[in-house]
Amino acid sequence: MTTRDDTVTIHYRRPPDREEIFTQRLLERRRDCIVTLLEHADLQHPMRIDDAVVLEPGAPIVWLTFPGRWHDIGRFHTSAGEFTGYYANVLTPVEGTASATWHTTDLFLDVWVPSHGAPRLLDAAELAGARSAGWVDEQTARRAEEEAAALLAAARAGSWPPAAARDWTLARARRHVRG
Fold it and tell me: By the 8 A CB rule, do 56 and 49 touch?
């Protein structure tokens, strides 16, 4: 069990040379899944997918990190807290998950599963550009594509996202924070 004051700091590398640092509240740490809350997304503009706003500046995100896996999952919301869908970042397995400081590298591909609608792959052109520029090696790029394809297939079959992502609603996360 975690205390209300637990946080993790995530060093999120974005090739070729950017790094963002996020501090998130640690809600649950299990061997297979770690749940964190980013209470206020630091965005300049709303994030849109297919002309729909899926994440707004200041909106909360419940994140699920799976040690050893090549993706994480965010439960996206509007700033009013309305759930919009599941967003999976394809990334290198997060290092340091047993500690309070994590490191990972974004591999450009994302899978979006809206609250109402069909799953879709995002940012394939970004990975292609990164591959061409040499920011991502061929083996890693192929692994990212395999991960995204597996997530999409599972989502289309109705077996993804996993139960933990469905169970850790924003309401549950906020109840946990309040203690």
Answer: no
